[in-house]
């Protein structure tokens, strides 16, 4: 009963209601802290909503900090995909303000309303013990698959007509993205693309009715890591895309910001490959590889010069494609 020593009488009463019949000695450390949190807050709705929002903020900005440090250290430029474009402190601060605005006006209400809706279709929140890893792993993979497909379709739509001009254009302010810019977007875009993140768990729960919110938290953490790392602007030899070939990663998404076109998916490369929306990206990579092969004996400066030349060509084409996208109607053919 040491778990309840610091709780008030009201808290103990709440514990008896929520956890009546639970063998607390059988819980692991994380499950005990989970119980303690719900007892301390005293209201499961407030406890879940507050924990969900705090998790999002701590993970988002916590994951961004290493990239801010890396951007400040010249040594890491050798792995930066666009080494001549390092975000300034002013750019990072402006980005942070927009991100915080979206977090509190769009994401906070969405996060707070998510768990009552999910609970209504069978999701567990305060309950213990947690599901096993064998149960959670396929659920998390489904969320990745669903979100990636949703994002691919929605992202392509955001690259057309008024949707781009009045919504998605803000996210493309930086042709060389950085970690903090992962959620630098118009509030409407945050809502649209965020739907893909939350709709997967809701739909899964509606049909399977065996989902625990701790699984959703694992999914959110992994999704935030994926989004921030994809916007980091760095491609290290140990980056995940070099281990998992179908993983998108920073190399894949950095090209999207640089060239405006191609590479619309988030986590995986397969939808872009299947739909041919990575053709320019693959052509660019071939040119870079061919240039490097032909310049094996060239100086470092010469190699960097040819890479900058190829980047400039792609970016110029992207500026033209962006202008065309703004002029294109929503239901007309989309830019590849």
UniProtKB/TrEMBL annotation:
Chain segments annotated as transmembrane: 35-55
Location of the protein in the cell: Membrane
GO biological process, one term: lipid biosynthetic process
Coiled-coil region: 281-316
Major site of localization recorded for this protein: membrane
Signal peptide: none
Pfam family, any one: FA_hydroxylase
GO CC list: membrane
Keyword Cell cycle applies: no
Keyword Glycoprotein: no
InterPro entries assigned to the protein according to its UniProt record, in alphabetical order: Fatty_acid_hydroxylase, Sterol_Desaturase_Related
Domain spans labelled Fatty acid hydroxylase: 141-277
MF terms (GO), sorted A to Z: iron ion binding; oxidoreductase activity
Domain of life the protein comes from: Eukaryota
The protein's name: Fatty acid hydroxylase domain-containing protein
Keywords: Coiled coil, Membrane, Transmembrane, Transmembrane helix
């Amino acid at each position: 009963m040491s778990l309840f020593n610091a709780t008030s009488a009201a808290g103990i009463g709440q514990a008896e209601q929520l956890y009546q019949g639970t063998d607390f000695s059988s819980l692991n450390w994380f499950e005990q802290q989970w119980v303690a949190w719900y007892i301390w807050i005293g209201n499961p709705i407030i406890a879940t909503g507050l924990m969900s929002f705090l998790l999002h903020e701590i993970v988002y900005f916590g994951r961004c900090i290493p990239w801010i440090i890396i951007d400040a250290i010249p040594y890491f430029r050798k792995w930066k995909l666009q080494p001549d474009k390092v975000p300034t402190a002013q750019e990072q601060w402006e980005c942070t303000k927009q991100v915080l605005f979206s977090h509190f006006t769009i994401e906070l209400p969405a996060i707070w309303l998510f768990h009552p809706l999910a609970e209504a279709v069978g999701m567990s929140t305060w309950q213990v013990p947690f599901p096993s890893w064998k149960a959670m792993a396929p659920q998390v993979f489904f969320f990745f698959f669903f979100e990636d497909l949703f994002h691919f379709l929605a992202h392509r739509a955001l690259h057309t007509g008024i949707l781009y001009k009045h919504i998605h254009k803000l996210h493309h302010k930086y042709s060389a993205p950085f970690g903090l810019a992962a959620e630098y977007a118009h509030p409407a875009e945050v809502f649209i693309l965020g739907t893909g993140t939350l709709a997967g768990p809701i739909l899964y729960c509606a049909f399977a009715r065996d989902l625990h919110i701790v699984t959703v938290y694992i999914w959110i953490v992994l999704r935030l890591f994926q989004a921030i790392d994809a916007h980091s602007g760095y491609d290290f030899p140990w980056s995940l895309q070099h281990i998992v070939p179908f993983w998108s990663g920073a190399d894949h998404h950095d090209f999207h910001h640089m060239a405006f076109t191609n590479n619309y998916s988030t986590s995986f490369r397969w939808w872009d490959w299947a739909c041919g929306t990575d053709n320019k990206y693959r052509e660019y990579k071939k040119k870079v590889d061919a240039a490097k092969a032909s310049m094996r004996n060239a100086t470092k400066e010469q190699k960097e010069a040819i890479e900058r030349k190829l980047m400039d060509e792609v970016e110029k084409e992207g500026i033209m494609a962006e202008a065309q996208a703004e002029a294109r109607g929503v239901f007309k053919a989309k830019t590849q």
